[in-house]
Amino acid sequence: MKIYVDENMPYGKEFFGLFGEVISFAGRDLSAEAVKDADILLVRSITNVNSRLLALNENIKFVGTATIGTDHIDLDYLKQRNIGFSSSPGCNKVSVAEYVLSSLLVLAEKQQFNLTDKCVAIVGAGNTGSAVHKVLTGLGVNCILYDPPLVAAGDQRTFCEFNDVLESDIISLHVPKVTSGEYKTTHLFGHEVLAQLSSEQILINACRGEVIDNQALLTLAKANKAPCLVLDVWENEPNIETQLLPYVTLATPHIAGYSIDGRVRGTEMLYQALCQFLGEEPVLSSRQLMAKPSISEITVDAPLTSDLVKSLIHVIYDVRRDDALFREKVNNANGFDHMRKNYPERRELSTVTINLSDKNYKMVNPINLSKIGFNIHIK
Length: 379
Ligand SMILES: NC(=O)c1ccc[n+]([C@@H]2O[C@H](COP(=O)([O-])OP(=O)(O)OC[C@H]3O[C@@H](n4cnc5c(N)ncnc54)[C@H](O)[C@@H]3O)[C@@H](O)[C@H]2O)c1
Ligand SMILES: O=C(O)[C@H](O)[C@H](O)COP(=O)(O)O
Hints:
Ribosomal Protein S8, Chain: A, domain 1, 6-stranded parallel β-sheet, 5-stranded parallel β-sheet, 33% helix, binds nicotinamide-adenine-dinucleotide, D-isomer_DH_NAD-bd
């Protein structure tokens, strides 16, 4: 069996080599000719899988994407051809939440505000939106949720209206790319909506670039009328509108979900889905493959103030590293993809145990370190 696996899928050879010959490929330039003899095709978000890519292939049985988003896959076409499919829902939701958390801590420090005085509107309350909700409420931050499809589906949580979103101090976007229909998300934040926001507000996009009209944003930014921006995703990646960069406070090349834990989880979820598709029992897990994190324990001997909690989070992940690297590399040839391909190791907070005394832990109310993601060991 020939299994074509994107070269940026960690442990792809280890997991998928168990089924047959693994052929790795660069995701952006995959051609129909190159995959014409694939039995299994495993991609990331940068490969469009459609009738054009699979036109020369008569054997393909299964397509998988090690990502949450599926907007690069023509699911109707796969169904028509009876090709099995799996994505990796939720694989990197914690990584995205930790990206948002780090970004807000950086902005609170830079602009000298207290996050617990702010209201965060989470647009899209699925896997990533809910993970963002969990970490922020773990810090004691007030959040509201906006998600009309979930309201229509009977989700019992409390949801707000779009007007409430526009009035929030901070807006964080977590919707899929949907190009048509009642719940269309492309240019959900177009000129008219963006023009209603003020420079006092913060707008974070860590879902898909097309959810914000980047040209409208640039026009408003040039007129000093844009909100404070955190952009991980952009229209037309990797050929993004670089004129936007000076107006973006934290800018990164679509790496919010790039903790190694999240990326490996994506591969492992595909492995499990493929085992199920082929009727085989899984024999390998990421635990057997992944290295121990370089920091696995931190001992805290003082009362946990919010400043100390911020330092703990930033020891593990500080988005300023990625923002600096991006600004340094973005104008090089293939700068956007180069940084994604060579992304420095980043672990999730759950790989770290915080040792602290019962007395010091009680001091952190209303901060809940476990909800934020750390393991806690009370001495
Ligand atoms: N930057 C990154 O690295 C990164 C990582 C993971 C996911 N993503 C993107 O984030 C998206 C969301 O991921 P998820 O795991 O939360 O997906 P999900 O499917 O679990 O949740 C998406 C939610 O958005 C809601 N939604 C859909 N249309 C909406 C609309 N018009 N208005 C408000 N809500 C709407 C859905 O009802 C759903 O609850 C993915 O589709 C992917 O594109 C980006
Ligand atoms: O949808 C997702 O899971 C994310 O956008 C994912 O992190 C994108 O990473 P890529 O597949 O482009 O490497």
